[in-house]
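Today's session is about reading a structure prediction critically. Students often jump straight to the picture, but the first step is always the sequence itself: look for stretches that repeat, for charged clusters, for runs of hydrophobic residues. Only then move on to the predicted structure, which in these notes is written as discrete structure tokens rather than atom positions. Here is the chain we will use throughout the hour.
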Amino acid sequence: MYMIIDRFEENLVVCEREDGKIVNIERSTIPQDAKEGDVLVLDGNRIFIDQEETLKRKKKIEKIMKDLWES
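Below is the predicted structure for this chain, in token form.
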């Protein structure tokens, strides 16, 4: 399962799961270098950042923003 970091609130990380549900997870359970917009992968008890998927999403959002401003 994957989820996207929406924001940080004190010791919690607010994430949106792939099914659209919003969940809170403990900040201590994710990689220290995680930031808003990163795609997290839950693999059993392990949580890691999917760098490739995060980059794809970032490029897609940048293209949408560019298209909006150029039209």
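Discussion point for the tutorial: Helices lie at 51-70.
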